[in-house]
Automatic annotation (TrEMBL):
<dbReference type="Pfam" id="PF14559">
    <property type="entry name" value="TPR_19"/>
</dbReference>
<dbReference type="InterPro" id="IPR050498">
    <property type="entry name" value="Ycf3"/>
</dbReference>
<feature type="repeat" description="TPR">
    <location>
        <begin position="98"/>
        <end position="131"/>
    </location>
</feature>
<keyword id="KW-0802">TPR repeat</keyword>
<protein>
    <submittedName>
        <fullName>Tetratricopeptide repeat protein</fullName>
    </submittedName>
</protein>
<dbReference type="InterPro" id="IPR011990">
    <property type="entry name" value="TPR-like_helical_dom_sf"/>
</dbReference>
<keyword id="KW-0677">Repeat</keyword>
<dbReference type="InterPro" id="IPR019734">
    <property type="entry name" value="TPR_rpt"/>
</dbReference>
Length: 179
């Protein structure tokens, strides 16, 4: 009788720490963006923006949510390096979760590490192209890098999705939007 020995590394072990798939909120995000374009006032737009944030910050599982919340807490308390470390762990764990990159970019931006912020913003936008906050953050980051024409393009794209963004004041030629 012959024995065939198969390698034990055919699949990851059942106990491997793997991020589950990110929830698909694309339909609801699209609806909110349409509603933002039709919002009749700043108050209405603010409510819709909060709905976007609740979807963007809906992490794939409890571990990812804890990392996101901790990274945002550290950032809010001006521990930008600690936030970056925590958010590094989040994007390593959940590489397909756009908000991990967006929040890490924000921590980098606040440290004026614009190059690192831009890399993360581009990654967030490759995952979620209509992430208005990442797009406006990209515009601000490009301004920090002195790349003003590109910054205007990014800000204009963000304001096109949300005409109520405060960053609209940074546009050289504000859009013709009746507010």
């Amino acid at each position: 009788m012959k024995w065939i020995i198969l390698p034990a590394v055919l699949a990851p072990p059942a106990f491997a720490d793997i991020c589950p798939p990110v929830a698909d909120h694309s339909a609801r995000l699209g609806e909110i963006i349409v509603d933002l374009g039709q919002a009749r006032g700043q108050g209405e737009a603010q409510v819709l923006s909060q709905q976007l944030w609740s979807l963007w910050t809906d992490a794939p599982d409890a571990k990812a949510q804890a990392l996101l919340d901790e990274g945002m807490r550290k950032r809010s308390s001006f521990d930008f390096l600690g936030a970056r470390d925590t958010l590094d762990a989040l994007v390593e764990y959940c590489p397909d979760y756009a908000e991990g990159y967006n929040q890490r970019a924000f921590a980098s931006y606040l440290r004026q590490d614009f190059e690192a912020a831009l890399i993360d913003l581009d990654k967030a936008l490759s995952i979620m192209p209509n992430h208005i906050a990442a797009l406006s953050g990209k515009g601000l980051t490009l301004m920090g890098l002195g790349r003003h024409d590109e910054a205007q393009d990014a800000l204009r794209a963000a304001v096109e999705m949300n005409p109520w963004l405060q960053e609209r004041a940074l546009l050289v030629e504000p859009p013709d939007i009746e507010l």
